Amino acid sequence: MFSKKIFTLILIVTILSLLILSVSCTQPVTEQDAGSIKVTDGIGQQVSMDRPVEKMIVFAPSVLEVLDALDAMDKVIGVDSWSIESGEPLAQGFEAYGDFNGPNIEKIAEANPDLVIRLSGSSEEDYDKLRELGITIYTFEAQSFDWAYQEIINLGQMIGKEDEAEQLKNEFEQQVEDIYTKVKDLEQDQKPTVFYEIFDDPLWSAGKDTYINDMIEKAGGINIVARDGLEGYAEYSVEKLLDNNPQVMVAGDGGMYEARTGEIILEDPRFSTVSAVTGGRVYVVPENSIVRPNHNSVKGLMMLAKAFHQDIFGQFEIIE
């Protein structure tokens, strides 16, 4: 009798366990289901919210492009004034709530958004005031493709479009991998040395721990600024440029910085002896596809790949 009771008890526990497992498999409990969405932003700060975002203010054109790809522009209620004034297509029709130098605290407080997305480097003091008002701040920052993939996933989680974000991220990652696979096994002497010009006077470029550097490497080039040990965006002397004598020089066509053409570099007397200039390997590319860390930067990556390895990727061309 005792054994029968034990057997019956075990049977009941087993059945209950199976029922619980069945429910958990059909209705997974996630942080979002439990009323808590938690992500870590681009500068390592944890951002928490109790429900998906319904209205947000976005101070980052690169984020607008991701939201557009996720069919989530209806959640945007405002942008930065720079995006409007510079003619960013996705920013048109929205109100401005500040700019890169600082948010309009009073106007944002009145709008009471669920989320404000900003770029790194802007005033911490101003955004701390918004946090004190109970407004959630997310800092968008990506120093590599891997970071950019995660930023897309984070945005998907915050707006309740995880599946769409996962698909966008996977397609983006596969496109990058398709390019990188063709150059990653090249010997060092098969990779051209590269200088990416951000500003021309004084000369500025991108070193280690930057999206531009990761892009140069993924396209099969050697960034002379990173090789020299410089990190982030830094001034680079003409003397160092001449010493390193890059085989390829690349610059943006404007966008965030002063508009330029290839002739500006080719006709600059400072660069007259540089291999890139004497060899005619100077390229000016649409800047947004280089400096904005999102899925559209695949276009920039392909342009760099064509500039560095025409034997592999074909003749260089502008990809809009």
Kindly state the number of beta strands: 16
How big is the Rg? 25 Å
Report the biggest beta sheet as strand number plus sense, adding barrel if it closes.
5 strands, parallel
Strand percentage: 15-25%
Percent of residues in helices: 40-55%
Overall average pLDDT: 88
Molecular shape = globular
Q: Distance between termini?
A: 80 Å
Give me the number of helical elements. 15
Give a short overview.
The chain has 320 residues and is of the alpha/beta class. Helices cover 43% and strands 17% of the residues. Helix 6 (145-159) runs antiparallel to helix 7 and helix 7 runs parallel beside helix 14.
Descriptive report:
The chain is of the alpha/beta class and 320 residues long. 43% of the residues lie in helices and 17% in strands. It contains 15 helices and 16 strands. The protein has helices spanning 2-26, 61-69, 81-85, 105-111, 124-132, 145-159, 162-180, 211-218, 224-227, 238-244, 262-266, 275-278, 288-291, 297-308, 310-313; strands at 37-40, 46-49, 56-58, 76-79, 95-96, 98-99, 102-103, 115-119, 137-140, 193-197, 199-200, 203-206, 222-223, 233-235, 248-252, 282-285. The strands form five sheets. Strands 5-4-3-8-9 form a five-stranded parallel β-sheet. Strands 13-10-15-16 form a four-stranded parallel β-sheet. Strands 11-12-14 form a three-stranded antiparallel β-sheet. β1 (37-40) and β2 form a beta hairpin. α6 packs antiparallel against α7 (162-180) and α7 packs parallel to α14 (297-308). The longest helix has 25 residues, at 2-26. The radius of gyration is 25 Å and the shape is globular.
